[in-house]
Inverse folding.
């Protein structure tokens, strides 16, 4: 217990409560809160790894530890010759995203795996990303390792390896860090020289210091500042002007003028200011890129959760392959709860299919032999055997995927770039005017003043302000669980005028719940017991909703319970035949189930998809922000109308019966629209909206195309994000104002000929610090909304 | 001022020496993961059998 005692203790539990010996959450049934935890405890003890608990007891936990609830998953497919190369790279490394990592003890345990299992050479965990990299011995199998990680109480998700993209990212990040380091070191050393020069070093030593300044500045000009030249040239080639054009211009001119002045013995050299400018800009851009990468990565990792696997039947054996390898005529089996891998026809079995991604309808569709089923829909009932009738790329899902890949959202010309265009043109005209005024009297003085103007008015504060403002806003949002993929998305958010919500799964929970319970005759308690007895084993969502509603009620034992597809459940109790089936509801359009005995109605239970608690308030809050709020749904008009009233929308603001393609058309017709959705049926709309927000629990497709991903399903986030976007724009404008004010002062000084390197050296950092503070403090509204620890 | 003759090269040498070390560290992935090493160091080495 003594180890790590110096590290912060967390999770103080009340003394009296019994806590689980594995996960430490309160337990109501003895030593362990659940069998999952008990199993893991037993495995750790048997493997001689009980030290885990000693470490955990005294270690700092960065995530609360959770009871073990993972369902057993088969990883056999990872070893098949077709799948293995997707996950294991040439150096025999594979990576897992591991859910459930919470403290140092997890690090200790997971990096100890090679001791527990043969064939594993090494394990490295990246705690901040929950990424585990395992190195295999040649030919060793991956599936036992995944299974072991799962037995230890974590949920591993194998991540497809993408060597090229990752290597490129790593190289770019390294290059950025090296440039930053070079610029920083050179700036520091230049300051040493500059201080002596401002301090009055003159004569021989003054000249030595100036020449050394030039030498120390060279790596900045020829190495660290390369990215600015590159983007500036790129923009000029396509006849555009972005913020990098004036920056590159200032660096190049500054270097040339300073070098020339050094040669002729003048004191006007700007090496220190220019190096500091490059360093600050590189630093702010590096920071923004890191934050964007973190957000993009967390949604990328989530996508790997959904990697579908098809179970192809080959004679007696089942072969797990990725759906892209399926051919027409292949037979595949689909178990309960699995995604259907390709469009096909049912060969064997009867079941219910949740086709909500296509239709928005959350009630499952009954299918039997011969019925067609579509890729991406979910089998909610009994296992099915299918024959593949379309390859994945020809399926409806595949076609939508292709459309997503070909249609790219038009890039936004950011505010900074627009402002810098005006700015650059103004400065160029001013410089030309200055030069022309002096051309008769003193051309060399005129040139000097014009050049000083160009150097001094380099929009450094402007260029610094934008990435800083974006990174602070992105970081604030990320801490609240909103992963915004880019600063551009934030700028788009500020322009949003119309907000479209998907219905199922977004405004509602996306699952059925009991709405009302009406006992018409008989004993209320007995009715409940009977119904629970009938629905005890059914996999139908209605049965699940009933079981959830009747927690704590003792089921009555019925005999000969049978479930007929589409006709409900029936069973015998004390000699009488009871049935539970769908009945038409006289009052409303909602789903309704009746409990009947001898065709006499005992109870009527209405179901509906429950509305999220915060939906109505969010709609009101967004309307208060002057946004038009509308709802898009694939569901039938009566259901949609009812929900519209519930969340406070007008009937003409609720669109019903829409296919994924129709949603896309509505969105495409509205500029500056924000789409909030979760299913794959929203993917096209999410991509085509000005901004797309994907809800937690959404499908891989929607995560891929959305600009923002919410890590917990809370609609209030939409309001927060719109406010954040608008407030960020205010901060940007404030920064522009500040930076332009400084530039005016510097510009006037340059034109009047007052400017010298000392003035430049003072104005530059002063303006940078001002925008830094302005970006950090953002606005009061943002500080209130995104308060730490909330 | 003659002391500057020694101090100036020394200062530059030190400064750029450390820059060299930093570049070496970046190249060798020392900054690839900023969080885990800080935690890993808290764990004891395994006791000899």
């Amino acid at each position: 217990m003594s180890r790590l005692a110096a590290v912060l203790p967390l999770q103080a539990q009340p003394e009296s409560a019994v806590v689980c010996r594995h996960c430490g959450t309160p337990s109501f049934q003895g030593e362990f809160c659940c069998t999952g935890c008990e199993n893991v405890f037993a495995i750790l003890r048997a493997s001689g790894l009980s030290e885990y608990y000693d470490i955990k007891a005294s270690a700092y936990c960065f995530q609360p530890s959770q009871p073990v609830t993972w369902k057993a998953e088969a990883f056999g497919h990872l070893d098949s010759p077709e799948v293995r190369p997707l996950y294991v790279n040439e150096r025999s490394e594979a990576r897992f995203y591991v859910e459930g990592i919470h403290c140092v003890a997890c690090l200790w345990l997971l990096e100890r795996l090679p001791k527990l299992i043969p064939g594993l050479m090494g394990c490295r965990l990246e705690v901040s990303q929950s990424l585990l990299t395992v190195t295999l011995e040649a030919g060793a199998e991956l599936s036992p390792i995944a299974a072991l990680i799962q037995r230890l109480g974590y949920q591993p998700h194998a991540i497809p390896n993408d060597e090229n993209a990752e290597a490129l990212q790593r190289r770019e990040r390294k290059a950025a860090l090296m440039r930053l380091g070079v610029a920083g070191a050179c700036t520091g050393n230049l300051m040493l020289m500059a201080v002596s020069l401002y301090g009055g070093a003159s004569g021989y030593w003054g000249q030595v210091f100036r020449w050394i300044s030039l030498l120390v500045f060279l790596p900045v000009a020829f190495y660290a500042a390369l990215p600015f030249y590159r983007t500036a040239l790129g923009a000029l080639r396509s006849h555009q002007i972005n913020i990098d054009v004036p920056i590159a211009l200032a660096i190049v001119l500054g270097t040339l003028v300073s070098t020339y002045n050094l040669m002729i013995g003048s004191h006007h050299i700007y090496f220190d200011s220019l190096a500091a400018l490059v360093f600050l800009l590189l630093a702010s851009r590096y920071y923004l890129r890191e934050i964007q990468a973190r957000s993009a990565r967390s949604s990328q990792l989530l996508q790997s959760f959904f990697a579908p696997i098809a179970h192809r039947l080959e004679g007696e054996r089942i072969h797990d392959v990725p759906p892209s390898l399926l051919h027409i005529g292949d037979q595949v089996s689909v178990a309960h709860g699995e995604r259907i891998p390709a469009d096909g026809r049912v060969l064997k079995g009867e079941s219910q299919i949740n086709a909500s991604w296509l239709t928005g309808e959350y009630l499952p569709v009954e299918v039997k032999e011969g019925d067609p089923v579509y890729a991406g829909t979910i089998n909610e009932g009994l296992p099915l055997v299918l024959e593949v009738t379309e390859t994945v790329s020809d399926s409806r899902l595949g076609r939508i995927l292709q459309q997503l890949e070909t249609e790219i959202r038009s890039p936004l010309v950011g505010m900074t770039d627009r402002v810098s265009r005006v700015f650059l043109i103004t400065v160029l005209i001013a410089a030309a005017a200055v030069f022309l005024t002096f051309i008769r009297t003193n051309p060399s003085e005129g040139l000097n003043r014009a050049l000083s103007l160009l150097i001094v008015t380099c929009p450094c504060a402007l260029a610094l302000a934008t990435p800083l403002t974006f990174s602070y806003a992105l970081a604030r949002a990320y801490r609240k669980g909103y992963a915004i993929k880019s600063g551009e998305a934030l700028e788009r958010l500020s322009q949003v005028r119309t907000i479209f919500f998907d219905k199922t799964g977004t405004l509602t929970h996306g699952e059925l719940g009991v709405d009302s319970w009406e006992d018409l005759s008989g004993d209320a308690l007995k009715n409940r017991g009977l119904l629970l007895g009938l629905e005890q084993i059914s996999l139908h969502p209605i049965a699940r909703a009933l079981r959830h509603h009747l927690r704590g009620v003792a089921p009555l034992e019925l005999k000969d319970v049978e479930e007929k597809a589409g006709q409900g459940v029936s069973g015998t109790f004390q000699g009488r035949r009871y049935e539970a089936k769908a009945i038409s509801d006289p009052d409303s359009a909602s789903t309704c189930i009746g409990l009947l005995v001898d065709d006499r109605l005992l109870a009527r239970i209405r179901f509906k998809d429950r509305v999220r608690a915060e939906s109505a308030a969010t709609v009101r809050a967004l309307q208060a922000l002057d946004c038009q709020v509308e709802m898009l749904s694939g569901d039938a008009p009566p259901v949609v109308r009812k929900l519209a009233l519930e969340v406070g929308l007008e009937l003409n603001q609720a669109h019903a019966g829409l296919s994924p393609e129709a949603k896309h058309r509505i969105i495409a017709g509205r500029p500056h629209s924000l789409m909030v959705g979760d299913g794959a049926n929203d993917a096209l709309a999410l991509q085509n909206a000005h901004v797309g927000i994907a809800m937690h629990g959404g499908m891989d497709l929607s995560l891929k195309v959305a600009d923002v991903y919410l890590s917990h399903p809370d609609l209030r986030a939409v309001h927060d994000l719109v406010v954040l976007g608008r407030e960020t724009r205010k901060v940007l404008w404030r920064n522009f104002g500040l930076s332009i004010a400084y530039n005016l002062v510097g510009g006037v000084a340059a034109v009047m000929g007052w400017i010298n390197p000392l003035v430049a050296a003072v104005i530059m950092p002063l303006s940078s610090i001002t925008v830094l503070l302005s970006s950090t403090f953002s606005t009061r509204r943002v500080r209130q909304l995104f308060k730490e620890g909330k | 001022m003659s002391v500057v003759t020694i101090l100036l090269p020394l200062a530059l040498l030190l400064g750029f020496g450390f820059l060299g070390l930093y570049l070496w560290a970046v190249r060798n992935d020392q900054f690839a993961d900023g969080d885990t090493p800080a935690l890993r160091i808290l764990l004891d080495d395994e006791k000899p059998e």
Observations:
- The two ends of chain B are 63 Å apart (CA to CA).
- The interface with chain A takes residues 1, 4, 8, 11-12, 15-16, 18-19, 22-23, 26-27, 31-36, 39-40, 42-44 of chain B (CB under 8 Å).
- Residues 25 and 31 of chain B are 7 Å apart (CA to CA).
- Chain B is about 65% helix and 0% strand.
